[in-house]
Specification:
Keywords: Signal, Sugar transport, Transport. Strand 1, helix 3 and strand 2 form a beta-alpha-beta unit. The longest helix is centred in the last third of the chain and has 18 residues. The chain is an alpha/beta fold. The strands form three sheets. A six-stranded mixed beta sheet has the order 2-1-3-11-6-12. A four-stranded mixed beta sheet has the order 8-9-7-10. The protein has a two-stranded antiparallel sheet with strand order 4-5. It folds into two domains: 209 residues, 3-Layer(aba) Sandwich (D-Maltodextrin-Binding Protein, domain 2), CATH 3.40.190; 199 residues, Periplasmic binding protein-like II (D-Maltodextrin-Binding Protein, domain 2), CATH 3.40.190. The protein is 45% helix and 14% strand.
Length: 435
Amino acid sequence: MSRGVRRGAVWAVLLSLTASLAACASGSDAGGDLTSEKVTLRFTWWGADDRHKRTQQVIEMFQRKHPNITVKGEFKEWNGYWDSLATTMAANDAPDVMQMDELYIASYAERGALLDLNEAEKHLDTANFDQKALATGAIGGKQYGLPVGLGMYSIMANLDLLAKYDIPVPDDTKWSWDDLKSIGDQVSKAGGGQVFGVQSPGINDAAGLSIRARQQGKAMFDAEAKVVLPQEIARDYWQYILDLSKSGAAAAPSVTIEKASAGLNQSATATNTAAFGLWWNTQLTALTAASGQKLKLLRLPGETQGPAPGAYYKPSMFWSVSARSKHPAEAAAFVSFLANDEAAAKVLLTERGVPANQKIREAIAGQLKDTDKAAKEYLDTVPVSDPPRITPNGASTLDTILKRHTEDVLFGRTTPDAAAASFIEEVQSEVDAAR
């Protein structure tokens, strides 16, 4: 099943839940004392084998500390996870603790399916989380998700390619988007059609467009989930992407789309066919392994030219608790263990991203690979502003819509201005339809 079709199926189930979930309440007091009676918690997550093994180790550690609590793990691959979660919600059989994604948290929270973790503060310690990190899981003053790991958008620079063509590494404390294009042109000319300067943005996610808006003091959505992105910012974004392609700073559209569709290991950054690319800082380890080159994280262009940094913390995922859990206090205690226990952290390391818990980040620093250390340092040192509003209910197809418009612009099927107008209208329509 394609991601678009699968999302449609998920929304169909969720829409049928509105009445029942909005009226649901916790099975017991989230702020009460932990019980001494036998309790079973169900805990679900998505991921591959390494994540499953590490998570199971941590579950066993928690059970040794709380012998009356049994945690039953339920894990799946991403493709089946959301269908399963929506189905269990519909059947009033939701797991107590779940791994939650930023694209979907508003959809579940706004239908009353998730516990406000503030109600469980007696058992859930968030003292070592930056407020900007906590804000990524908050809606209307309620904390529906505790961020597990954090990422930040960055420019990934291939130092080996720059050295090969005798091109200096740019000063990322003051460079602009025009500077990136100019340096990209230099690389492309030196690369002779085999290596390009910039891996074209606008294909994989909407973060780049959001960053450009934030750098100009604007946003994609307001607090009421209205699309407030100015059309001229979207137009300029697509014009920039088109200019990269036309100048040769980026590869031809057909090459760009082919590499983007093939996944991380076949990307221009991973195959050493572009010197610069927009990536999340946490992808440094995987891209270094794939490319076999020396890569460096650079701050985003344009950060010093606007009223505020565009960079922000993006949660890799959240821990959330079902609003229907019969054991919300115990579920919150388990989430607190996952987030705060140093021994558990030394098992999980950065498998779910660089930890959002600042104390935990320092506790595991000595065990990290050099590339993970670099990702951690980037997270610790690069200035950020408040996070954008959580992706509204209905807008989980945002990335797909953006990619389609980028392809249309690159292949000349539409203009940047027309793409901007259509993008804003289409996203707003999706949000409105989900209300």
